[in-house]
Amino acid sequence: MENENKYEEVVTDMEDVEDVKVVEEADVDANADTAEGQRSNADDQPSDATQSSEDAHRQRVSRFAARFAALVAKGEQVMAALDARADAADESFGKKAAAADQRIDEFAAAMQERMEKVADQLAEDLEVIASAVDGQVVAETEQKNEEQAEACDEDLDNPTEPAIDVPYRPRFTPAAQAFRERMRVGSASDLVLTDPEFVERFANFAFDDVPADVDLPDRTRFMCWLATLLGCQGIDEFRALLPAALNVGVEPQTVKEIVYQAAAYLGIGRVYPFLKATNEALVAAGVELPLKPQATTLPTEESRYEGGEEAQVACFGEQMHGYKDRGAADYPHIAQWLVKNCFGDWYARGGLTIAERELCTFCYIAAQGGCEPQLRAHAAANVQCGNDRAFLIKVVSNNVPFIGYPRSLNAMAVVEEVTGSAE
Q: The whole model's pTM is what?
């Protein structure tokens, strides 16, 4: 307010200056007229009067100048006061702005902390909700499985013709359903939708009747199935069954060795698609490739012959010493290849025992069909390695769903021939 009053005084003084200027200009004009009259009447006016008029004019000009100078000085004082006020206002504004910035920063920090707490609480709430939902889903799934099992039991006890306008639902036996759940195969196959009756009958036979009558560990059962599918070239079923084999405990290295060894009995032309399918399944299961090396022989003829002969002796007995030198006169290389390649490159590897390798070979050959002389030799080799008659009968029986009855009966006849008839 003080500065505003000073400003009004300056304005008033400036208006006074304007009035003085008007008066002075009027006086000047009047004096000019007087001087002109005096000059025109010079002969009539005395010289003392002229001098007195000029002195009065100077005094008025001097007073005006002094008054104007005072006004200018006062204006400068007012301007200085306004500048000081402005500087003070700038300083005050800067302090207020800094305080405001600080309050804004504090508010933002408080909001950030609050948001983080809210986010943490929300995450905890969501986790609780998710756990509750998962528990509910599990409970609902278990209840649904129980209802399906009860419905299956009821359907089996009281078979009725399904309604024509209702899609057929496979009726798995409880044992078959339990086996499928252990494999964790779900219902991903399109056949469940397109051929539900076929899936029902095959699953109830392969996953209920066979396991019920053929007592084998899951790992052994699935090893035989994989080797059998290689032998009969069941690539699609191999691709579908391999994840289940991994789920029940067949190791990735074991699967690889089953496929590798098949090259000696099926040839790369038939094994290559299985090798690709195996790699795809292992990668999908999160297995890093390549796996750890399993070779125990060096890529030299001496090492391969030595390891191959050792494996042959383990499978067929001491008479296999020197087998590489017993080849026919016109194709001696075949006997040599059998020692250093079939046995030296493949049998003399880790990942499978000698007994497991002979078991896989028996499955390859039986599934191919038409190779009974070789099947007899390897049936005998299985017995030599500890896979006796009872075990081989289980193996052949276990493989029936995947190679059918003719080849299975042929294999069973070979087992009878090699081991003798049951008493």
A: 0.62
